[in-house]
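P.,

For your records, the input lines for the assembly:
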Amino acid sequence: MSNKQERSRHGRSTPSRTAWAALMATLTSVALALAGCAPGSPAAAPTGSGDVSLKLTSDKITIKIQDETGFPVSDDLAKEFTKQHPNVTFKVVRDSFANLTANAPRLMASSNAPDLIRLPTLGDTVKDGLLTNLDPYYKGFGWDKFSAGQLAASRMSSKGVRGEGSLYQLGLGYSVTGIYVNQKYAKRLGLSGVPATIAELEQWLAKAKAAKILPVQIGMQDGVGTFALQALINQYGNKSDLVDWMFNKSGATFDTAASLKGATVFKKWADAGYFPADVNAINYTTMVSNFQAGKGLLMFDGNWDAAGTDKAMGQGAATFVPVPPAAAGGKYVAMGAANSFSIPAKAKHADAAAFFLNWIHTNAKARQIVVDVTGASPGGDPAQQLPTAKAGSLIDQALKVSAEVGADNGFVDFMANTTSGIYAGAFQPYEQRLLTRRMEPKAFTGAIQQYYEKELAGS
Amino acid sequence: MSSDVRRHGASEPTAAAAQRPRQGARTAGLRHRLGRPTRKVARGTALGWIFVLPALAFFSTFVIYPLITAVQYSFYNWNGIGASTWVGFANYTRVFTDRELLISIINALILIVFFTVIPVSSGLVLATLIRSMRPGAFATTARTILFLPQIIPLVAAGIAWSWMYAQTGTINTILDSVGLGSLSRSWLAGFGTALPAVGLIGSWVLTGLCTILLLTGIGKIDASLYEAVRLDGAGWMREFVTVTLPGLRQEIAVLVTITVIAALSSFDIIYTTTKGGPGTSTLVPGISIFRLAFTQSEVGLASAFGIVLLALVLAVVLPIQLLAKEKS
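Structure tokens returned:
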């Protein structure tokens, strides 16, 4: 023992140097050994070509759902389904949106994959063979009667282009975006109803500014203000150009006249002081709570905040209106997407999960639950009767906006879903510059397109 | 693994003797003096390895193995799930040519000022001050208050500070009340103020740790040394430079190491306050790597950047270690 102590005291640097050398040697040799085998699995064969059953099993089964926190509708739907089909029970696991998005591919690749998973973006999941192809169910259950525009974003071709190819997702409710209007300020300024054009909307903003009321409550810390930018871009030019770009069709570009016009107006509003001075420090949560606390005449947001806003401000304190077209009498265009769920390829009860999805879109009670809990449109066959919402409530107004946009076939996806990295990597930082006179609109549209090309080339 | 370790441990004395003549001679001499303890030593060594084994197993599973796989991933273009392609050093080339990734490294280096220089120097001042105080309720309270930020989770600190930095937050209220309202602004939203603002959160968190550690260090210094310099007529400055600073050499080295690592690998504070914005003014490697790996699914590039960050930390920290060891 004493020998060892002696040695370690005198030759201090030597053993540590040996250990270091040994560590490096081990590292190098293992790294070299591992270099031989590449990580990951080879691309899987496309799924969904096998037989599917459209009938619900009579076995006792448990459907595993992986959902996000703060999205309780899956619990309520599960409860109602079990009431109607007692042999099927559910196990709902939740994680925060950010964690879930980051981990979804790994969860689906694991041997313990859920039967139904909230999957906001398809990304590489189709290419990697992680999802069940829903085409057989689409044909079998007659989902072709559903609004094609609402399902477009849930399709992906084998080349990774969205909007075409097979169906991989359905929504537990479908969102629609618009403008929340604070009625206290609207009355004070003598504004009523729905602005007919962007020009009229701008008059609203100017009036509010003149009366020292913040015209638009908006934030850009986490990029939430992109709702407003896209709401503008949507109104200029042909929406299919933007949709093609969002769906990554080859040759599509963001650098269009419509984007430039939208970015120019967006910047003009910021320069005119229509946005909070600290817009770059405000995030989504702050934006919503600020608006509900009476800070601002307008807020660009979606129907998912309808129930909460009514609760916070009292019914009638705010209205929900569609973003007006550029020219009077033009068609409504608005962002809307499915609260999308997919069935992993490794799901043990894929047929039952698909039956459950179909039930959500067609069963009257289920559709009512979707509306009551999320405020979102239930989707499904437009000919089917809409669930009822409390008259005059924001949910009721949002359902009407959703129907109006649907009637104009005006649903487009969110720009944030264009690629997995573009929201945090390009929109957020470049819009922050655009709003603070650090970037010109022309440079902005060019920079977004450049990032887009770089990201698509890298993946 | 375990058999491998034991074999290595058992053969060490002979191997060491063969490889290192200077030290070998000394051990041989000792062995001669102590009789024939070889078997005992071997048993002791083996016993030592057995004690170390659980920790070593954890270390290998959760540190060494991930490190090796990260090195491996960094040579591939891989999304974390599907098929991967070997790309050689392309990921590393991208780390050093991508402007945004370089900006994040520079920002992290700037953060060293706020995470290391400010906390360590103010810790030195505070520790000296507290030492000169009479022990009592005031000194204890001061110590406790200074250390409090250390026990608050960084995420909570980040959120609380983002409220204080807001347009209507505490900082601006204070500025207004002392007539400096013209300076008030949204600190985290400004391109020029965001990085110093998040940096100061780090200073706030780390100053307490520095003070407490330096205070214990000062307590270890032989009181007679202070007496001696005072007898020689030294003032507080002389005392600080001649006795306190050299006496705290080890502690300062430890603190600089810890805080530099905290600066270069910062994530939580930035993520909760600015998410790297406005623009890229507070983007740090931690945020970039997180985005690359988990939102963009570029596991290869993220791993390469992680390895570069590791090398950067080592490049900064190792010289500090060497400097501290010198003369000791």
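Two observations worth noting. Chain A has a mean pLDDT of 88. Chain A has two domains: 61-175+337-387, 177-335+417-458.

Regards
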